[in-house]
Amino acid sequence: MIQLKCTCNNCQHNLKGHCDAGYISLSEKADCQSRIKRSGGALEQTFREMEAGEEFLSDAPNVVQCNARCAYNENNKCTASSVKFSDMLMKVRCETRIKP
Predict the structure, then answer these.
(1) What is the tally of structural domains in the chain?
(2) Which residues pair with 14 in a beta bridge?
(3) C-alpha of 75 from chain center
(4) pTM for this predicted structure
(5) Residue 44 is inside which H or E element, if any?
(6) Residue 80 belongs to what domain range?
(7) Is position 100 within any domain?
């Protein structure tokens, strides 16, 4: 299982840096295509994180499908032991990507 750190401020799957998507898909530019914006935005996410107990936080998903040119991409699956995602201006991008 991959260790995942997600700092996205407005995603239905992100809770205190844990992703519960179960499956993450990355584009050719290493953008997260699995992101689903919360209906209440970043403010709703803040409230959910304040209410969430640590015992309900799940670990990283089992599969990170990657279509980007990356040293960790092996048959369109990420082989990195740790992956970090961060907010960009209009998208969420994988910061672990290393161009071959």
Answers:
(1) 1
(2) 19
(3) 20
(4) 0.78
(5) helix 41-51
(6) 3-94
(7) no
Residue 50 backbone dihedrals phi, psi, to 5 degrees: -70, -30
CA 50-41-82 angle, 5° bins: 70
Per-residue pLDDT of 70-95, as tens digits, reads: 999 999 999 999 899 998 888 999 99
Burial of 90 per CB tally in 10 Å (0-12, 13-18, 19+): exposed
Placement of tokens 């914006």 in the chain: 37
Condensed to tens digits (0 to 9), the pLDDT of residues 41-75 reads 777 777 676 666 665 556 556 689 999 999 999 99
55 lies in some domain: yes
Assess if residue 80 is contained within a domain. Answer: yes
| Residue 99, in any domain of the structure | no
